[in-house]
Design goal:
Blueprint: H1 3-8, H2 14-27, H3 32-41, H4 44-60, H5 67-76, H6 82-95, H7 104-113, H8 119-134, H9 140-153, H10 157-170
Helix pairs in contact: 2-4, 3-4, 4-6, 5-6, 6-8, 7-8, 8-9, 8-10, 9-10
């Protein structure tokens, strides 16, 4: 698949691009590395579109993600572009249960993003952290108190509810 042409095609809206890439990925799960390699060298808007397509695909089939995917989205949590941050967090939320012992760096980056000024970045971080909490990993020793602290300072009720729902499942 020619990712560059799909991304550059002005006749296709972003939602359709994500759908095309996601469908292709679900049909060709072994090609995830190819898409991530393209995304790694792409500018932020294209990178975010690629990561969003991975998010859509991993929502339907988390099994397509490997450790290289986790590593990639963990690193992109630190990107400057908010959309790259939030799409990466959603991928982590979809696949966290597959890698319970490999989430330390992701948790660290997600906790940083839980304080981001952007609501969608904070919401996505909450989603991912909530999914990690639900896995009942050893990280919960520090993650649960951190989530409780976030709940106390978070101004948006919609974000607070995500943490509270995850905390309720492990209490």
């Amino acid at each position: 698949m020619d990712f560059a042409n799909i991304i550059a095609d002005k006749s296709i809206n972003n939602k359709e691009k994500v759908q095309q890439l996601s469908d292709w990925l679900l049909e060709n799960p072994g090609k995830l590395k190819t898409l991530l390699a393209f995304a790694e060298g792409a500018k932020d808007p294209a990178k975010a579109t690629c990561i969003e397509s991975v998010e859509f695909a991993t929502k339907q089939n988390p099994g397509i993600a490997d450790i290289a995917c986790l590593t990639f989205v963990t690193e992109t949590l630190t990107a400057k572009a908010p959309r790259v941050k939030w799409e990466s967090a959603k991928v982590i939320g979809n696949i966290a249960h597959r890698f319970p012992g490999k989430l330390n760096e992701a948790v660290k980056n997600l906790l940083v993003n839980s304080e981001h000024e952007g609501t969608v970045v904070r919401w996505s971080a909450a989603f991912a952290l909530g999914e990690i909490i639900i896995t009942k990993s050893p990280l919960n020793k520090t993650l649960v108190p951190a989530a409780e602290a976030i709940c106390k300072r978070e101004e948006k009720n919609s974000i607070r509810k995500i943490y509270l729902a995850a905390l309720k499942k492990v209490s």
